[in-house]
Amino acid sequence: SPNNMRLAIARTLPRPCGRTLPLKLSPLHAGSACLHGARAASSHARRPFYSSSAADETNANPADAPWQTILNPLDTFPRRHIGPTAEDAQRMLESLDPPAKSLDDFVKEVLPKEILNSHDLQIKGSPEGQDGFSESQLIKRLRQIANGNQVMRNYIGCGYAGTRVPEVIKRNVLENPAWYTSYTPYQPEISQGRLESLLNFQTIISDLTALSIANASVLDEPTAAAEAMTLSLNALPTARQKRPNKTFLVSHLCHPQTPAVLQSRANGFGIKIVVADILADGAKAVKETGDDLIGVLVQYPDTEGGVEDFQDLADTIHQLKATFCVGTDLLALTILKPPGEFGADIAFGNAQRFGVPFGYGGPHAAFFACSEKYKRKIPGRLVGVSKDRSGDKAMRLALQTREQHIR
Question: Model's pTM, two decimal places?
Answer without folding.
Answer: 0.67
